[in-house]
Amino acid sequence: MRKILTASSALLTLALLAACTTTRETATDDVCLIWRGNTFSAKGDTPETVAEIREANAKRDAYCGAKK
Description:
The chain has 68 residues and is mostly helical.
């Protein structure tokens, strides 16, 4: 009976330790590495295109934080 109790305790301890793995909180870092800001040409792009690019960049900055 004592061997069963010892083995059960050991298995329970291993199961609890296996559940304590380090995980990433979010995937924000990975997404922000590949989600680059867009650029535009004030001379060659229409005002609508410039506005859309600025809006897309603002969304990226809100999600990832403004670039430094």
